[in-house]
User: Fold this.
Amino acid sequence: MRHGNKVNHLGRKSEHRKAMLSNMANSLIEHKRITTTVAKAKALRGYVEPLITKSKTDSTHSRRTVFSYLKNKEAVSALFRDVAPKVATRNGGYTRIIRLGFRLGDNAEMCMIELVDFNELMLANEAPKKATTRRSRKPAGAKSAASTETVTEEVASDETTSSEVISEESTPEAPEASAEDTTTEE
Assistant:
């Protein structure tokens, strides 16, 4: 029975599991996406996301901490140089798991795990996000007096502007008057 066991052992001893996750994390950082089984991808997600969060602060301590997990200088430098600036504004959820189907040999469920900000196809299709607004807790019928005044002022100014534009457009252009006519009018 596995009561209270939170870790998926993946059929390996702890040292083998740590080495496998380290190698998979190195490959994910280097290639930005890898194909593996769903169980391994879920374990990898819990392994690599704290490392990406740690890479947001570029200090000697955070580099050494990440290196103790990855044990690969090239992967650590790529993580801090390429990945960290792209995910700087993201608060988590740096990876995406996309299920691909079942493997032919043993019918294991396969998936692709990728870094979210590096999928150019999905970023191109994504529409720009609309700014979200927070709603107030006031009842629907209770609007402030200031907001209604500004709305009526805007409507009134729009009406005067449109009437001025219409009157200017409707007046036919007069032929050029001589210099004498302009002086008498003034």
Remarks:
- The radius of gyration is 32 Å.
